[in-house]
Amino acid sequence: MATINIPVSVLNLAPIRQGGNAKDAVDAMVDLAQATDDMGYTRYWIAEHHNTSTLVSSATSILIKHTLEHTKQIRVGSGGVMLPNHSPLVVAEQFGTMATIYPDRLDLGLGRAPGTDQLTASALRRSKSDTVNTFPNDVQSLLTYFGPEEKQGFVKAFPGIDTNIPIYILGSSPNSAHLAAELGLPYVFASHFAPRFMEDAISIYRKNFKPSEYLAEPYMMVCLNVIAAETDEEAAFEATTMQQFFLNIVRGTKKLLCPPVKNMDEIWNPQEKQAAKSMSSMTLMGSKDSIREQLTSFQEKYNVDELMAVSYMYDPDKQKRSYEILKEVVDGK
Prior knowledge:
Elements: E1 8-12, H1 22-39, E2 43-46, H2 60-69, E3 75-82, H3 88-101, E4 106-111, H4 118-124, H5 135-145, E5 167-171, H6 174-183, E6 187-189, H7 198-208, E7 220-228, H8 232-251, H9 270-279, E8 283-286, H10 288-302, E9 306-310, H11 316-330
Parallel strand pairs: 1-2, 1-9, 2-3, 3-4, 4-5, 5-6, 6-7, 7-8, 7-9
Helix pairs in contact: 1-11, 3-5, 6-7, 8-9, 10-11
């Protein structure tokens, strides 16, 4: 059976499941990292969200360190560190320290949004002048901090110098595609919740990419929702957890990750259904054969360099099986 031949990775927002608590969510995050490490996944990224009672991914660097501690070879990183919330020097020191303890296993994905509401963003900010507009300069600062001694200014990150931690630009709109292309950095698009701009962003990035000391050619990663199961019917049932997750966002409610249900039409109205489905339209869903067919078709159209999968599934064992099926598909098993 032909392989699709693409590296696959994992994104985890570290949601709290209904009936569980924050500690359970952290334990589940590590458990999934260990499972996908054993499966041969390339990287495992953890998101950053604040003032969100349904997720535990606020102190992202601490979760990354915890995950590195409990895994063997999978690369662990941020999907992403939201730079408006952080001083680049502090990020460089934290990641430089982790890279010193766990060499060649760390990635730094950077986002320009705060990952929260405006009030919380204000509470997080270093000062009132720190906005998304400082993002390009902040990225440049981090590239310098991780680079060689001779390129450093007076302020240096100890440890951090010469760690050369790979930096990825994250985006959910075409804006960041221009920046990633200009800086010659790898680009990761958030199709798992912002599919509308995916095609534009991929095209802008590839068309405008400038080779750099970090990257000779464009490296395009795309994050998709993946719900794989033994049959199409089982996957459709399991996917109702993801649909409730997006309904939560549409309604602005704070429900924990819910078990699957038999009939979503009893829960959402037509407008909510349309909104939730448009956010999650980039989803690979079904049996192994269906996933293979959908992924082949996706790659024929977009030919991305790496796929990052997020799977909102209530049963941890079924979630692990979903990742296993995806890996079997790309490995041609």
